[in-house]
Specification:
Helix content is 34%, strand content 27%. By secondary structure, it is of the alpha+beta class. β9 and β10 form a beta hairpin.
């Protein structure tokens, strides 16, 4: 019996010691706790999550810059492709804006002209006789194209397009010296959907076109009115029906 009471006392003493130690440790932690420690830990964890979210956003942006469908900007039946303009090479820009590439004259001589681009064919017909097997023909000016932003629109035209471009190609057809095309999101604003028109007489300066005006509209001459001013960086397209009532208009600002 005496040994049993001794064992009970030892257990009670051990339990009491543990309770005293636990209470003491809790008091110590409460006394030495610094809220800044938790704030720093929370800040580090938040910074980690912000960094991870930032990487995720960059990855998503990177994925969005890959080719969505075939084409450069919009045009000739091609669909939209996002381009990083700052990193774009001159060749990539030319292809994106549907300008003739370095092998155009050789390809055209072998019958490889995009059938959806009659204006390119018109340029080839005008000058292919001056080309040689070693060199392309001398042109009155280099084919040029620019990206543009729609700044004002009314009527039957997209008011918030994602991509617009303006192209000018040299031709020799009577009084006409160039063909112009204006497109937004794959729709031809000028000349016509088939792109078989758009002939204008370009005003030149220092070997490049600076102005082109077509004052008629489709019911009169087969394509809308256009006023292209490359020095001011503006393009205006207007269309009217057979009675002379406006159907749409668009004003664009040249970007690059």
């Amino acid at each position: 019996m005496r040994e049993q009471r001794g064992g009970i006392r030892a257990s009670v003493v051990l339990l009491s010691a543990l309770m005293v130690f636990g209470c003491g440790y809790a008091i110590y932690r409460a006394w030495t706790f610094d809220p800044l420690d938790r704030e720093v830990a929370s800040s580090e964890e938040g910074s980690h999550h912000r960094d991870r979210r930032g990487r995720d956003r960059r990855d998503r942006r990177s994925r969005r810059t890959h080719v969505a469908t075939a084409g450069g900007s919009h045009g000739g039946g091609g669909a939209y492709v996002h381009h990083d303009w700052n990193e774009e090479t001159e060749l990539a820009r030319s292809l994106a804006l549907h300008l003739p590439g370095p092998t155009f004259w050789q390809d055209a001589r072998e019958g490889r002209i995009p059938p959806e681009d009659p204006q390119m064919l018109a340029m080839w017909r005008s000058y292919h006789g001056l080309a040689t097997t070693e060199a392309p023909p001398p042109l009155p000016f280099e084919p040029t194209a620019h990206r543009a932003e729609l700044v004002d629109a009314s009527g039957d035209v997209a008011h918030s397009p994602t991509s617009c471009d303006v192209r000018v190609l040299p031709v020799s057809s009577g009084e006409f010296t160039c063909v112009v095309r204006v497109m937004c999101d794959g729709r031809v604003l000028y000349p016509n959907e088939a792109q078989t028109a758009g002939y204008v007489s370009c005003e030149m300066r220092d070997g490049r076109p600076i102005r082109a005006v077509d004052s008629g509209f489709t019911a009169r001459d087969g394509d809308p009115l256009v006023d292209l001013d490359l020095e001011r960086g503006t393009v205006r397209v207007e269309e009217y029906d057979e009675t002379g009532q406006p159907t749409y208009s668009a004003t664009l600002r040249i970007q690059s």
